[in-house]
Amino acid sequence: MKKVFPVIIALLMMGSIFSGCNPGTLGGYTLTVNDITLEAGESEAVTYVISPDDASVEVTISCNEAECGLIINGLEITALQDAPEGQHTFTATAKKQGETIATKEFKVTVTQKSPAGNPRWNKAPEIKNVFFDDFGGELGFSSVNWHLVNYGWGQNGVSAYNAMYTRSPAVVNAENATRGIVVLPSYGHYYEDTSKRGQGTCLISTNSYGPGLYEVRMKVVPRFGPCSAIWPYYTNSVQGVNTEENQEYTEIDIECPAQGRGFYAWGGVTYTKYYQDATTGKIVRSSTGVRAEVDSPYNDGNWNVFGIEWRTDAANGDSYVIWYMDGKEVAFTTQNVPQYTA
Known about the structure:
- The chain is an all-beta fold.
- It folds into 2 domains: about 15-110, Immunoglobulin-like, CATH 2.60.40; about 145-335, Jelly Rolls (Sandwich), CATH 2.60.120.
- The chain is built from 1 helix and 23 strands.
- The strands form 7 sheets. Strands 16, 17, 18, 19 and 20 form a 5-stranded antiparallel beta sheet that branches. It has a 4-stranded mixed beta sheet with strand order 3-10-9-6, with no helix packed on it.
- A hairpin with a 2-residue loop joins strand 1 (about 25) and strand 2.
- The protein is elongated and about 80 Å long.
- It starts with about 20 loop residues before the first strand and ends in a 9-residue tail after the last strand.
């Protein structure tokens, strides 16, 4: 991600030092402004020069279009993750003691981020292992690769007995799948069997995996209430003995949907700490949350591919988590990147 630079007021008398930046002159002052190119999801501050240099001059910016689609915060411009490509015209206005002394139009060009696999990488990764399962084996999801669990999350937890599976060619082909389909049901608060109300289903990999690209093709639960989720997870937490020194934790979440935007967004979270301190009894957590904005609701009954790219090559500057949907990058963080296999 591009670094967001502070405003730069250079002590230069000649605007021509900025190649391609034409000055706007009014009232004896000259305002020179750089054009900006932003990738969707990024921010940058406007760079300008006022001549003659005058610390009492205040410069503001505004978009010349009624529906600009860009966020202005002071002199910083942000293009949202789903901002369309295109060029926008802005005006910078210089005022002294409330009176306009110079104006200058400049352009802000928005480009889309590179698709999945197009590097933010400083060094290409070494692929050591590839795991794939289309649930087409004789044992389906009950095999050396997966196990179902009974656990007390939420109202009635998750139950292994809820899971369903088919290799029926008619069903599989109708869904444009390959060999098998797994269904992990959830039950609402009005389900006739009260013991199942608020209950879901959870499938866990038998093996542990480290940094890499994780993808799952799924249809999310189409209604509000349940959370369709995928997450690499590991902890060595033991109640009563946890300390900062002995804790190991990994969690990277995809959570559908996200609050506030319904099925037009989903949430991503990274965790490097989550435990109860043995001395204080307090929960200690280190986490970073992001929101993946999308163009249309994804609870429409269609298949979508949700992905996490997890890199831990800090020595080469490649320590981050990227979230994808259908091959398009939708969120990114360099904060709280886990280190342990999960």
